[in-house]
Amino acid sequence: MTTRRRNPGEFTGRHMLIITLTFFGIIIAVNMTMATLARSSWTGLVVQNSYVASQQFNRKAQEGRAQAALHWQGTLTVTAGVIRYVLVDAAGKPVLPASVKVAFRHPAYDAEDRTIELTPEPGGAFSARQAVRDGAWIVEVDADVGRALPYRQVQRVFVRDGAIQ
Q1: Cβ atoms within 10 Å, residue 25
Q2: What is the pTM of this model?
Q3: What residue ranges define each of the domains in the chain, with the CATH number in brackets?
Q4: What whole-number distance in Å separates Cα of residue 11 and Cα of residue 20?
Q5: What torsion do the CA atoms of 52, 150, 86, 73 make, to the nearest 10 degrees?
Q6: Based on the number of CB atoms within 10 Å of its own CB, is 157 exposed (0-12), middle (13-18) or buried (19 or more)?
Q7: Of residues 160, 158, 153, the one with CA closest to residue 75
Q8: Which three-class secondary structure state does DSSP give residue 81?
Q9: E strand intervals along 56-98
Q10: Cα 3 versus chain centre, distance
Q11: Is 72:89 a contact under the CB 8 Å cutoff?
Q12: Fewest CB within a 10 Å sphere: which of 97, 117, 142, 153?
């Protein structure tokens, strides 16, 4: 019986097995990490049912045109931990809503989304003491002005150092 001697540095089946297991182990670990991150971040869901949303588009567009025809102007400010909203009509006179709700929505994920009810101030403004985290936000303001639908204003803002930039 002859014993085969291995040369130092010779590539063996054991080496190939280790390389193959390492390669696939890294691929599986990266896939598991990416799947975990995907499950814990933004879902990408914008509407629950895109068909129903498409059927409502024309109605919402008409509502938007009717609101724009009022020529009202809403101003949202965020400074020093105070959110303030003022709504004026075409002549510059304050419109006095019954209530104002402001929804801050993060464009990438919904974990920090929140809706804040503003309280009336003398002079027609509405405000709330609430800090807003720095970053990009989609702000949706709904003011109950006594019409069939609330006055709705949506804008994208960037908050830096507690104030809208």
Answers
A1: 10
A2: 0.69
A3: 72-164 (2.60.40.10)
A4: 13
A5: 70
A6: middle
A7: 153
A8: coil
A9: 73-79, 82-88
A10: 69
A11: yes
A12: 117
